[in-house]
Amino acid sequence: MRVEVSAAGRWGLPSVFLAQVAVFGSAVCLLDLAADRPAGARPAVIFFAVAAILFASMAALMRYGSRRTVAATLFGMGFLAPAYLGGLVAVHFTGAGLSDPGWYPVARAVTLAAAAVAYLASLCLIGARRTPSPAPRMALLLMRHLPLVAVSVTLLNFVAIHQADLLAAEAARANPGEYANGDFYLDGAPATAWTHGAILGIAGVVALVLAGIARRRGVSAPLLVGLGVAGLPYLFLLLAAPFVLSGASGEPVPQVLADGPGWYLPAIATQVSLAGIAYAVIMALMVRAGSRQPARPWRVSATRVPKDGRW
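Request: output the structure for the sequence above.
Response:
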């Protein structure tokens, strides 16, 4: 006799870990009140209130939702991880004051560290909770093309820097009394372009690694969480792709040094939009694949066969 366990029952324990976000947030607020810091506690209250609402909703979806809802929630857990952990660090550094009692910084740091550990434990706990499904070929194909964004954006940046330098020099020669020499505004532009391209390239390598894991292991809970964790930094890098050539706002230099050539922003916006659409399609396909019925039951009990060989 086969016994199958529903998705909702399997995810009860991770949802308990997610609910601890509200507990640790309440603990931080109580510490702030005990230290007589009601004004300073407001950023922490807002942060943990928003996090508690988000994660409580995710815990409810994980516990009672359908397979597709659970798969989408797994991705959401990973997607929010960088923002939540970064928020914990920000709350820590904005919490201390000269008038606080001596026990307060240590107690607050320990509580915030426990909140981070509880969240990371929930991510690790759900990693062994789902039977993988085959990865969609279209999603794998799109993931393998994501590193090309780093190459194209970096090339566009360097072409724009070179052309902006030429256009600025021409404008300065045509109007020597209106413009000052703005060449020094471009001194740090190549280094910044290389740095942004390298970081975006690392994000592309991560996409290749995840694509390889998906092809070999299928769409599993760790993969959905990993796609979410990598997604937020990747989208942030895409938003930072419109490289600003200088910060010389209001300075007597040609405007091309700040905005780049006329073709630059449209070209970058096109690249970023296509990459963002590709990422959204990848996530939709992966979540859909992760919500499919597994090929084998999640839990199988011993099968009893009568001596005569019949059921």
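The mean pLDDT is 77.
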